[in-house]
From TrEMBL:
UniProt protein name: SOLUTE CARRIER FAMILY 2 FACILITATED GLUCOSE TRANSPORTER
Keywords, comma-separated and alphabetical: Membrane, Sugar transport, Symport, Transmembrane, Transmembrane helix, Transport
Signal peptide: none
PROSITE patterns: MFS, SUGAR_TRANSPORT_1
UniProt xrefs under PANTHER family: SOLUTE CARRIER FAMILY 2, FACILITATED GLUCOSE TRANSPORTER, SUGAR TRANSPORT PROTEIN 6
One cellular-component annotation, GO: membrane
Species annotation: Salix koriyanagi
NCBIfam families assigned: SP (TIGR00879)
Location of this chain's protein in the cell: Membrane
Presence of the UniProt keyword Transmembrane helix in the record: yes
Domain of life where this protein originates: Eukaryota
Major facilitator superfamily (MFS) profile domain segment(s): 26-473
Transmembrane regions listed in the UniProt entry: 19-39, 81-99, 111-130, 136-157, 169-191, 197-220, 282-306, 318-340, 347-367, 382-407, 419-443, 449-469
Recorded GO MF terms: monosaccharide transmembrane transporter activity; symporter activity
Amino acid sequence: MPAVVIANTGDVPEFEGKITFNVILCVVIAACGGLMFGYDIGVSGGVTAMDDFLKKFFYEVWERKQHAHENNYCKYDNQKLQLFTSSLYVAALIASFIASKTCSKYGRKPTMQLASIFFIIGVALTTFAVNIEMLIFGRLHLGLGVGFANQAVPLFLSELAPAKIRGALNISFQLFITIGILIANVVNYAVGKIHPYGFRISLGIAGVPALMLCLGSLAIHETPTSLIERKKVEEGRAVLKKIRGVDNVDREYDSIVHACEVASQITQPYHKLMKRESRPPLVIAIVMQVFQQFTGINAIMFYAPVLFQTVGFGSDAALLSSVITGLVNVLSTFVSVVLVDRVGRRALLLEACVQMFITQCIIGGILMKDLKITGNLPSGDALVVVIMVCVFVAGFAWSWGPLGWLIPSETFPLETRTAGFSFAVSSNMLCTFVIAQAFLSMLCHLRSGIFFFFAAWIVVMGLFALFLLPETKGVPVDEMVDRVWKQHWFWKRFFNDEQAVEKRETEMIRPHLI
Ligand code: BGC
């Protein structure tokens, strides 16, 4: 029997529900996870540029910096410093797999609480670090916090949001990431002149969002899906009523119960994830994250001050420029909040590819033409570079930034959702690690070519989005399989009926048996 197919007319039936105070409260508190992540992205670039920090933990780097002969592209190429930034992401990578288990077994809420505790320990260790070992140990704890939070928060938001505004609510996670980055940029700028412990203030302030998440998560509800999945059926229904603000939640409740029943038959989600029918959301989840990172965004987020100094700004102007790009990042994310559930995911992603491709090429072109090994860019050129970086960041901020998290959180069926999403989080962390570790060295060796390298990736991701990415706007999260994957021209071939699959598997095994 072919699987039941629900016609995809674009006329999406809605579950009943209002945007209640509960929904808003949950979103604000959960998005503190985004602040934790964002602050950390922004803070590392700033402190590694502070002399007090370098003198304390990386003395030889500071010394070399004083005597380094000028080479525009290689001034900051240093593996150890890059490791300080990147080490966090290795811990986050590992944590995301563990977090997938805690998410399913104990719920999204305790996983967020665990995240904030790891983060608070990490903040304490880095803020009061007396040597490099303590500093790195702290970074690893921060990484565990980031891994747990990035696993739990987007899932929490997707499951809690009413379908018609799920995109917008989910993007509040990204919004808080960008606000976290901006706050870190401003703090770095402000404390850079406080000697000798300004960097400790920067590192310590990271504890604020972690504390907010820790306390706030005591007050919020677990998601109905997670409760029902863990057999707390009546509590799940009660929470659903509360967060939807209506008495009649039968249809949504039934849909969740159905999804949970299917999920409960799967005792080994990772095993199920390797099955043929799990491939479409798995491939999309991983690829969205790889592409997100290979837009080159973190080359800018981690190293903007360094990049702006490379093109000839003084250190103050460079720090200020990174505050400006941080602001553009925050404001442009609002565009996504407004448009994602109206124009859909694909339109935003495709438009941004064009925008990001053009800006990367212009930046690369200017540097190739005018930035030699020594000497500065003419000031007009440097200004164009800053403007292009802003246009690039804007494009990213309303597309691949938020949607890199949103799409993987909404496309897995429940039975593989947490396991599948952990692949998304860990792919993000792995690629972030690679970019953090390699960008300054790549800039040194490829020079302006680095921007063409990212431009080439943007072409690839644009083609992928055009041909292989289905639209998920407005589809309830527990109905993705029938209404999205089984309707898509390419991915539907992964959902042949069971008999056909079994037959194919038997045919593949038979030759080995004979
Ligand atoms: C990405 C981060 C990036 C940030 C920039 C996030 O979605 O995962 O790596 O630094 O966006 O706003």
